[in-house]
Design a protein that fits this description.
The chain has about 180 residues and is mainly alpha-helical. It is built from 6 helices and no strands.
């Protein structure tokens, strides 16, 4: 199922809107809501980190659609946009339940380091920084939340997302191996 760059850009913009409630870990607690609405510091940090990871993945993958020279890198980026948009929707429901409304900020160091790269140079940096390293960190983030988080629904969402993110990490490792061999 191939999508045009225009469709993928629209998807990434929609994903940014979906991810908006996840970043910064702001909760209704700041607005004086009940104790049951508050997230523990561990869960707040997870929401902030998951929001940033997702925003970074989407921003970098959007860049890959126009900056990458390798077809496999662009296809990987397209898959990340689709899958991370779905993951963001699932987390968005939980974020809204806890009043998290601040927009996520992508990791400007990662995205900024990719913006001026093109072709094979972009491909290599994207694979290393976003595909492999980003997913390695995301696997650990979601694993930790699924095991030690305090909010039952958030733990369940992290556990449900973990196999998808782990699969992305495996795909990224295979992509890195394939590109290193060529």
């Amino acid at each position: 199922m191939s999508r045009s760059p225009r469709t993928l850009i629209a998807l990434s913009l929609a994903a940014a809107a979906v991810f908006a409630p996840l970043a910064q870990g702001q909760t209704q607690a700041a607005a004086g809501t009940t104790q049951s609405d508050k997230l523990s510091p561990i869960d707040q940090q997870f929401m902030q980190d998951a929001g940033q990871a997702g925003a970074t993945e989407l921003a970098a993958s959007k860049l890959a659609l126009t900056h990458a020279s390798d077809r496999q890198v662009r296809e990987f980026a397209q898959r990340m946009i689709v899958d991370h948009t779905k993951l963001a929707r699932n987390l968005d429901v939980l974020a809204k339940r806890h009043g998290i409304t601040a927009p996520p900020a992508a990791d400007t160091a990662v995205v900024g380091s990719l913006q001026n790269l093109q072709g094979a140079e972009f491909d290599k940096a994207y694979i290393e920084k976003v595909a492999v390293d980003g997913h390695r960190k995301a696997v650990e983030l979601f694993r930790k939340e699924s095991e030690t988080g305090n909010d039952t629904a958030l733990k369940a969402a992290a556990a449900k997302a973990l196999p998808i993110i782990s699969h992305h990490y495996e795909m990224a490792q295979q992509l890195a191996k394939t590109k290193a061999a060529s």
